[in-house]
Write a structure and sequence with these properties.
Chain A: Keywords: Cell membrane, Membrane, Transmembrane, Transmembrane helix, Transport. Chain A: InterPro entries: MetI-like, MetI-like_sf. Chain A: It is found in: Cell membrane. The complex is a heterodimer of chains A (292) and B (321). Chain A contains 14 helices and no strands. With 292 residues, chain A is mainly α. Chain A has 2 domains: 50 residues, no CATH class; 228 residues, MetI-like (MetI-like fold, Orthogonal Bundle). Chain B is mainly α and 321 residues long. Chain B is built from 16 helices and 2 strands. Chain B has a two-stranded antiparallel ribbon with strand order 1-2. Classes of the chains: A mainly alpha (292), B mainly alpha (321). Chains A and B meet through helix 1, helix 4, helix 5, helix 6 and helix 10 of A and helix 1, helix 2, helix 6, helix 7 and helix 8 of B.
Chain lengths: 292, 321
């Protein structure tokens, strides 16, 4: 910009309207999160009267104390951390290993395997056949039911495969000359060089585990095993429509502040990684769309 | 290096099946380390992606937990006949289709508009901040989003109803009224996905040659001219392909959100195939009936997806793979 003069002529009507629209959009996006947080920090009386809009009214941490003293939420929190850590680790390991042979142009049966893998993106047998497999394998009510049936996401596998394919061949060839095995090449050269791609797909896997509720809801019967999202869902459903007489439990009495405190607690890790993760997030979306 | 293998067939020993088997065997031997690395992936796809297809045969049987998949009695199309002749069928069909179509038609333009508006911002920190904030909902779980919807629309203390009351109108029990359900579903979906979906259009816009804009500026073009004459035509191929692909996955309703937001009061508009399978099949243990309904849905969805993929490729797009 050569003549960057600040004058009224540079401020167009379009620019002003555009800025207003985008500011409103940003507010609409963020406001629900702020509101939930404000309610979780407010006195119950203020919440019930509907006085809380932007800032906490009658600031207190009672809801958090209540939630953390009740054993359900802390236990669910630990469950979620455990499932997410184990699940993401398995996802990343299996995807990183599986993508390697598939990325090799003359791998035995490559075309057949790729076709068989891609076909599964179009076949979705539905909730019941998936449930039956998990149940026949005796995985119900265990962490493996959450981890194994989705151990590899086909889309992420294909993304990583094309990332490997675009990697320079020279390092690998040098290693072959040195007599390195495929295992060594994969774990000591290819995987370390794929950190950016692994960070992107790892983020999607992480979010998938941290936020999943339907799968744990149908595969886990024992409430001791519930992750945070399922506990949250119980609080949510039963506090809204107590019309489920057979299912009413202590959660039915959960006041809004307690529920929102649980939401905030479940959002904290996500919101902490979000500023750093969003770079990988956009990259992951783009990797997905460019993959030919 | 590649002395054997499928792409080197002419070099393989001739002599029909026997020769080809020898070649394949040599190829396998050469690739044994790669094959070992591939075993976990292979097992995963066989067990958890193709295994359930085997489980689908219960749609043609009377499955019970006690007899197992194999020993259950064959009943042919009984469950399909029951489903197609029940009034639920048309209701579910209508609900699934309408939610999908409304979501597609109303949801589709927003990411494009957002990407264009963001592109017009000259202040970089503002552009970056708005874009970063717009991804935020993608990081929230469906339970949290549903909880926010319920809170905001609550007839007692929900912000929206307080606003309505302040204006002197009567409060609305949004989630209890069938007429509001689709609006709530679609608008919350737009809120949750607009930033994420704008990423692809932002990238398409970033690929436009800047000299086009400079030339237009020299010719005295206004901003709106440039949007309608340069930006939109340039990203039109992306828009068309996204539309085709979205049409293909239209019937993949976010049933988790429906499950969290609907109630018996709104079943008449909210119940879709997947929620019905969950309720009738899984919760009430009618596994065979649920599998039949799920199979029907899967076939319809697959046809739609395959045809959209076909059109996307014909239009020069990448398709799903």
């Amino acid at each position: 910009m050569v003549n960057k003069r600040f004058s009224l002529r540079n401020i167009s009507l379009f620019g002003v309207v555009n800025t207003i629209i985008l500011t409103c959009l940003a507010i609409i996006t963020v406001y629900p999160v702020i509101y939930i947080t404000a309610v979780s920090l407010s006195a119950t009386s203020e919440v019930v009267q509907g006085n809380v809009t932007l800032f906490p009214k009658g600031f207190n941490l009672d809801a958090y104390a209540q939630v953390l003293n009740d054993d359900r939420v802390p236990r669910a929190y630990l469950n979620t951390i455990m499932y997410t850590a184990l699940g993401t680790a398995i996802n990343l390991l299996l995807t990183a290993v599986a993508a390697y042979p598939l990325a090799r142009k003359n791998f035995f049966g490559r075309k057949f395997f790729l076709l068989a893998i891609i076909i599964t993106m179009f076949l979705n047998p539905g909730i019941i056949p998936n449930y039956l497999i998990v149940s026949e394998l005796g995985l119900l009510n265990s962490v493996w039911a959450l981890v194994l049936p989705n151990a590899i996401w086909t889309f992420e596998l294909l993304i990583l495969k094309s990332f490997y394919e675009n990697m320079s061949e020279s390092l690998r060839e040098a290693a072959v000359v040195d007599g390195a095995s495929e295992y060594r090449i994969l774990f000591q050269i290819v995987i370390p060089l794929s950190k950016p791609a692994l960070a992107s797909i790892g983020l999607f896997y992480f979010m998938g585990h941290w936020n999943s509720f339907f799968i744990p809801m149908i595969y886990l019967n024992d409430s001791v095993l519930y992750p945070l999202q399922v506990v949250l869902r119980d609080m949510l459903i039963f506090s809204e429509n107590g019309s489920n007489p057979s299912l009413v439990d202590a959660a039915a009495l959960a006041p809004q502040a307690m529920k929102n405190a649980t939401i905030v607690l479940s959002m904290i890790p996500v919101l902490l990684i979000y500023p750093f993760a969003q770079k990988y997030f956009a990259k992951g979306v783009m990797l997905g769309s460019e993959k030919g | 290096m590649a002395s054997a293998g499928t792409e080197m067939k002419p070099a393989a020993p001739r002599g029909g099946i026997g020769g080809r088997m020898v070649a394949a065997f040599q190829h396998m031997k050469r690739d044994r380390q790669l094959l070992i690395l591939f075993i976990p992936c292979l097992l995963f796809y066989i067990i958890f992606r193709y295994g359930p297809l085997y489980g689908l045969i219960i749609a043609f049987k009377d499955y019970s937990v006690f007899t197992g998949i194999m020993e259950s009695e064959w009943v042919g199309l009984k469950h399909f006949e029951k489903f197609f002749s029940s009034p639920d069928f048309w209701l579910l069909f209508k609900n699934t289709l309408l939610l999908g179509v409304y979501n597609l038609i109303f949801g589709f333009p927003f990411p494009i508009i957002l990407a264009i508006l963001l592109n017009e911002v000259r202040v970089r920190w503002f552009k970056r901040s708005v874009q970063t904030l717009s991804y935020l909902p993608s990081f929230l779980s469906v339970v949290i989003i549903s909880s926010m919807i319920i809170d905001f629309l609550s007839p007692n203390q929900g912000i929206i109803n307080q606003f309505i009351a302040a204006l002197g109108f009567e409060k609305i029990y949004f989630l209890g009224e069938p007429s509001w359900f689709r609006t709530i579903y679609v608008s919350s979906d737009i809120w949750a996905t607009v930033g994420y979906e704008a990423i692809i259009y932002m990238a398409a816009i970033a690929g436009i040659n800047p000299s086009l804009y400079e030339a237009a500026k020299v010719d005295g073009a206004k901003r709106h001219h440039m949007i309608f004459r340069i930006t939109i035509p340039a990203i039109l191929p992306t828009i068309i392909i996204m539309f085709v692909l979205k049409t293909g996955s239209m019937l993949r309703i976010g049933y988790e959100k429906v499950l969290l937001l609907y109630s018996p009061m709104t079943y008449e508009v909210a119940d879709v195939f997947s929620t019905y399978v969950y309720r009738k099949g899984l919760m009430e243990s009618n596994y065979s009936y649920g599998a039949a309904v799920g199979l029907f849905e899967a076939v319809v969805a697959m046809i739609l997806l395959l045809s959209s993929n076909y059109f996307s490729k014909r239009l020069g797009g990448s398709g799903l793979w």
